[in-house]
C-alpha cells in the first residue's frame, strides 16, 4: 500500500467531522431531507468504474448531511440517546484504525488489556460483585440476551438439564417473569432466548414491579425461573425495589437479571445510589455505555456475577483458536467471535472522567431533568405525569390530540426534540435527559421552545371567529 494512501481521505473525513461537531449545538435538530432525497443526492446507480476515495467521502458527507438528525444536540431528548465525550470519539477512531479482532487475548493483547481494565473499573464503579464476567456487545438488547442465555443455562443445569449440549427441545419449561412495565428490549431478548413473552406480575403507577405479585407468581410452581427487574423505567425513570424483589426471587430459586440500559449508572453516584440499593445481589446486569456514559454506539455491556455461567453459555471453541487458559477470553463473554474492540472507548471515557467525573455526569443529567420538570410544571396547561427520580420527564396537555400536536410542533421548530409516546393510556411527550451537554442554558431554551410550541398549537386549535 502507498505510504500516503490514507492521508487525503482521512483529511476529508476529519474536515467534515469538525464541521459537523461545530454545528451541533445550534443547528436545527430535525433532518430536513428524507430518504429518497438523500438517495437522489448520493446517486442511485452503482457506476461501472470506481472513484477516488477522498472524492467518495466528500460526496458522502455532503449528500447525507441534510438527512442527518442532530442527536448529539444538548436539546435532543429522544430515545434515551447520549452524546459523545471527546476521549470516547477519539478512542473509537483509533479502534477502527487499529482494526483489531478482539476475540482472544493471545493475538490482540493490547486491546484485551484495555477491555479487561474497563471491565474491572465498571464492576468496581457500580459496586457489583468482584470477578463478575463482563462482555462488550452491540447494545442493551444484546446485553440483555447475553445475560439471559447465561441465566437459562444456569437454571436448567440446576434442574438437571444441559441446554448447551442438548438444546431447548425437551428441556423443563423456564418461567420468565417481569413487571408490567418491562421494556421491549427485555421482551425481544426473552423471545430470542426461547422463553416467549414474559409473564407480567403487576406494577405500580410509576412502573415498579409488584413484589407481592412476583411472590404469588413464583409460588405457583417450583420449576426453573428467571426474573427480569429494571433500573430506570423508560417513561418514569423509576427503579424496582431490588432488595425486596431479589429476596423473593432468590427464595424461590430464581435467577435475577436487571435491565439497566440507562439507569444502572445511578450506582456510580453517591447521591443517587439509593435508587439501586440491593441491586448487587442480583445475578446479572445489562447496560449501555452509549446512553448515560456518553460513549459512541456499539457499547452494550453484559455483566454476570457467575463468570463460569457466562462462559458456559457464550464461549466459542475451535481447533484453530488459542487454547483456553486459566483466564477467560473475550469470546467467553459475548455471542460473537469477530468484533471490534468496543471496550476501548469505554476505558477512555472512564479514564478521562474518573470516579468523580462519572458521578458528576450522572448527577448533572438528573439535575437537568428536574429543571425541565420544574419549568414544565410551571407552564399553564402542561402536566408532569411522573415522579422525576432520574432522567425521564413525561408531560401531557389535557387532550391527546393537543399533546401529539405539541410533540410535532416542538420537533418542527428545531430547537428541541422529544419523543411522543403513550403512558397510562394517555398521549405524552417524553424527555429523556441523556446528553452531557444538557446544562441549565439548554434546559431554559427547551422550556422556552415548549412553551412557544404549546401557544402555537393552542392558537391553531381555536376555531376562527365567524361573521
From TrEMBL:
Keywords for this protein: Aminotransferase, Decarboxylase, Lyase, Pyridoxal phosphate, Transferase
Residues that bear N6-(pyridoxal phosphate)lysine: 291
Molecular-function GO term, any one: aromatic-L-amino-acid decarboxylase activity
One GO process term, biological-process aspect: carboxylic acid metabolic process
Keyword Nucleus found: no
Cofactor names: pyridoxal 5'-phosphate
Family: Belongs to the group II decarboxylase family.
Name of the protein described by the UniProt record: Aspartate aminotransferase family protein
Amino acid at each position: 500500500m502507498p505510504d500516503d494512501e490514507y492521508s487525503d481521505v482521512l483529511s476529508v473525513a476529519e474536515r467534515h467531522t469538525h464541521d459537523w461537531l461545530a454545528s451541533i449545538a445550534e443547528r436545527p435538530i430535525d433532518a430536513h431531507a428524507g430518504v429518497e432525497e438523500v438517495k437522489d443526492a448520493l446517486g442511485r446507480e452503482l457506476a461501472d468504474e470506481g472513484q477516488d476515495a477522498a472524492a467518495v467521502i466528500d460526496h458522502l458527507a455532503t449528500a447525507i448531511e441534510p438527512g442527518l438528525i442532530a442527536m448529539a444536540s444538548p436539546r435532543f431528548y429522544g430515545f434515551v440517546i447520549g452524546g459523545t465525550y471527546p476521549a470516547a470519539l477519539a478512542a473509537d477512531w483509533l479502534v477502527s484504525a487499529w482494526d483489531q479482532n478482539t476475540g482472544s487475548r493471545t493475538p490482540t493483547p493490547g486491546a484485551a488489556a484495555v477491555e479487561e481494565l474497563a471491565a474491572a473499573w465498571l464492576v468496581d464503579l457500580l459496586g457489583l460483585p468482584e470477578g463478575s464476567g463482563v462482555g462488550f456487545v452491540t447494545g442493551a438488547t444484546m446485553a440483555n440476551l447475553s445475560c439471559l442465555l447465561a441465566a437459562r443455562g444456569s437454571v436448567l443445569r440446576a434442574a438437571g438439564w444441559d441446554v448447551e449440549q442438548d438444546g431447548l427441545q425437551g428441556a423443563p419449561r423456564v418461567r420468565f417473569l417481569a413487571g408490567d412495565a418491562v421494556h421491549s428490549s427485555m421482551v425481544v431478548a426473552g423471545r430470542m432466548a426461547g422463553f416467549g413473552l414474559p409473564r407480567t406480575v403487576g406494577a405500580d403507577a410509576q412502573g415498579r414491579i409488584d413484589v407481592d405479585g412476583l411472590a404469588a407468581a413464583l409460588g405457583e410452581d417450583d420449576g426453573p425461573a428467571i426474573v427480569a427487574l429494571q433500573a430506570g423505567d423508560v417513561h418514569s425513570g423509576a427503579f424496582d425495589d431490588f432488595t425486596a424483589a431479589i429476596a423473593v426471587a432468590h427464595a424461590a430459586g430464581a435467577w435475577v437479571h436487571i435491565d439497566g440500559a440507562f439507569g444502572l449508572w445511578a450506582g456510580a453516584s453517591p447521591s443517587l445510589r439509593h435508587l439501586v440499593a440491593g441491586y448487587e445481589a442480583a445475578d446479572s446486569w445489562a447496560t449501555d455505555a452509549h446512553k448515560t456514559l456518553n460513549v459512541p454506539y456499539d457499547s452494550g455491556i453484559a455483566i454476570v456475577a457467575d463468570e463460569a455461567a457466562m462462559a458456559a453459555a457464550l464461549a466459542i471453541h475451535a481447533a484453530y483458536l488459542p487454547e483456553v487458559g486459566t483466564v477467560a477470553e473475550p469470546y467467553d463473554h459475548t455471542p460473537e467471535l469477530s468484533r471490534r474492540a468496543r471496550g476501548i472507548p469505554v476505558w477512555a471515557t472512564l479514564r478521562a472522567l474518573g470516579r468523580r467525573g462519572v458521578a458528576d455526569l450522572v448527577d448533572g443529567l438528573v439535575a437537568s431533568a428536574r429543571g425541565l420538570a420544574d419549568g414544565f410544571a410551571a407552564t399553564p396547561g402542561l402536566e408532569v405525569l411522573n415522579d422525576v427520580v432520574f432522567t425521564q420527564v413525561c408531560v401531557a396537555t389535557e387532550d391527546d390530540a393537543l399533546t401529539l400536536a405539541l410533540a410535532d410542533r416542538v420537533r418542527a421548530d428545531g430547537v428541541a426534540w422529544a419523543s411522543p409516546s403513550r403512558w397510562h393510556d394517555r398521549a405524552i411527550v417524553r424527555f429523556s435527559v441523556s446528553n452531557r451537554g444538557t446544562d441549565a442554558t439548554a434546559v431554559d431554551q427547551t422550556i422556552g421552545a415548549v412553551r412557544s410550541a404549546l401557544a402555537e398549537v393552542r392558537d391553531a386549535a381555536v376555531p376562527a371567529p365567524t361573521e
